[in-house]
Amino acid sequence: MLKTLKYAFAVKEIRNKILFTLGVLVVFRLGTYITVPGINAKALNSVASSGLISILNTFSGGGLTNYSILAMGVSPYITAQIVVQLLQMDIVPRFVEWSKQGEVGRRKLNQWTRYLTIVLAFIQSIGITAGFNYMSSLNLVKDPSPQTYISIGLILTGGTMFTTWLGDMITDRGIGNGISMIIMAGIIARVPDGIRQVFVEEFQGASDLWQPILYIVILLLAILAIVTFVTYVQQANYKIPIQYTRRLAGASESSYLPLKVNVAGVIPVIFASSFIATPQTILMLFTQNHSEDNWYIIMSNLFNMQTVPGMILYTVLIVVFTFFYAFVQVNPEKLAENLQKQGSYIPSVWPGRETQKYVSSLLMRLSSVGSLFLGLVSLIPLVASAVWGLNESIGLGGTSLLIVVGVTLETMRQLNGMMMKREYIGFIRK
Hints:
Layout: H1 2-9, H2 12-31, H3 51-60, H4 75-87, H5 93-99, H6 103-135, H7 146-173, H8 178-189, H9 191-203, H10 210-235, E1 237-244, E2 254-260, H11 267-283, H12 287-290, H13 294-302, H14 308-329, H15 332-341, E3 344-345, H16 353-388, H17 392-395, H18 397-429
Antiparallel strand pairs: 1-2, 1-3
Helix pairs in contact: 1-18, 2-7, 3-8, 3-11, 4-6, 4-11, 5-6, 6-7, 6-11, 7-8, 8-18, 10-18, 11-14, 14-16, 15-16, 16-18
């Protein structure tokens, strides 16, 4: 990885893209320290144990800790993406039509995604502000009037749209997927604070040093094992053999089509985390008047990743989104059509519809492995945190490691592709 970065910085075009990405991430990090006007951020200390804070901090880079203008992060945008993609599955005819129109249709869908982002961000902003203000021992909102809540909602909604715009800038002019890079940057930025919390909890007041040292060693070994396992699975490929009916003279008559074992990548984890956080933020609108109602208690437990029902729902969402996004990434119908146009086929499989069925069946099997992998890595730290009473940041450590490793591998793959493309262009010009 370091070797790739060294070569990448030697190329002016790629170096500018990397520096642009880093510059945008610096702007994002600076925004997480600007507190929303009319907010007493210290009041959040009394509800710091809330699992919602940890989830939202994952998408905002710790912005909720300071109750910054970027406190909502990209969570509303991701939720809006999920909703729009689901509506394309023969639910809204206009969305289905746009999804088949190429670049023009994609722009229209992106526009509607942003409209929905604004609505969700505004509702969630008011929800968490009202909920945390009620739950905190100190007053979070200095002047809890309707005008204040609306102004705070508008500021946080603007922060979400600004963060989304920064992500789009990275995607268009930088390196990697912008939204994923922002989430990863936020996770990495919170690492020092996580280390400090572990140190304070384990070493301060400890009578025997060997116990906290043993705990740290076991924790480091667990992190190393998870990173190694995630890296291995994320890079694993299943090779589909391909035969060609016509090839140029001297060219091989066979090849293969690589499919990642975990086709969906880390997107299902991001989707599931964001999807489970949205109802939590909306429920906080009803905290003051309905906190004792049965429906509120049931819904709060269901959408809380620190409870057993919440863990089960989180795992189910990861599994569902793994299968869903695998078929978004690889369209069996289009793949079969492209193979037929290229005069190629899969051995022992008839071109056309039979190829489509074969690829669909293969995607189902690969997605089963991918969902099991993502579910285990995300769930085990949550269970361990609940059973042994570990720090809440460790509970979400599996999710964070999945995102960081997955985004890093994807970014390095993009850098290698750009370097290879440049070599080919140089070779052709010679």
